[in-house]
TrEMBL record:
GO terms for biological process: long-chain fatty-acyl-CoA metabolic process; neuron differentiation. Belongs to the ATP-dependent AMP-binding enzyme family. One of its GO terms (cellular component) is lipid droplet. It comes from the Eukaryota. The lineage of its organism: Eukaryota, Metazoa, Spiralia, Gnathifera, Rotifera. This is Uncharacterized protein. One of its GO terms (molecular function) is ATP binding. Keywords: ATP-binding, Ligase, Nucleotide-binding. It comes from Rotaria sordida.
C-alpha cells in the first residue's frame, strides 16, 4: 500500500493529520490539473482531507451516490471557511482566485 510505504501510518486519521501527506496529495492533484489543461485559477491551492465516509447513511450523498452539496457545505462550513481564511492571511488573495477541494475517505 502506497501510504504505508511512504508515510508509515496505518491509521487514516494520523495520516490525514500529516502535513507531508496532505502536501503530497495536493501536489498530485495539481499535477493532474496541469497535465489535463486545467487553468491555474481552477486548480486547487488548498485541500482538506476528511476521514468520514460519504454514504447515504451519513446524509452526504444520495442512494445513487450523487453529492448532496448543501449537506456537505453545511457539515463542513467551518472547515471551508478556515481554508479560505488561511489563504487570505498567508497569500492575501480573494477566495475567488483559487478553488479549494475536499477529499474524502471511502470505505
Amino acid at each position: 500500500n502506497y501510504t504505508e510505504r511512504h508515510f508509515y501510518e496505518k491509521e487514516w486519521q494520523k495520516l490525514v493529520d500529516n502535513e507531508e501527506f496532505v502536501e503530497k496529495i495536493l501536489k498530485e492533484i495539481q499535477n493532474v490539473c496541469k497535465n489535463n489543461g486545467i487553468e491555474r485559477f481552477e486548480t486547487p491551492q488548498r485541500i482538506k482531507i476528511v476521514t468520514e465516509s460519504w454514504t447515504p447513511e451519513t446524509g452526504l450523498v444520495t442512494d445513487a451516490l450523487k453529492l448532496k452539496r448543501k449537506a456537505i457545505e453545511q457539515k463542513y462550513k467551518d472547515d471551508i471557511e478556515d481554508l479560505y481564511q488561511d489563504k487570505k492571511q498567508t497569500k492575501k488573495q480573494t477566495s475567488t482566485q483559487n478553488k479549494n477541494v475536499f477529499l474524502y475517505n471511502s470505505i
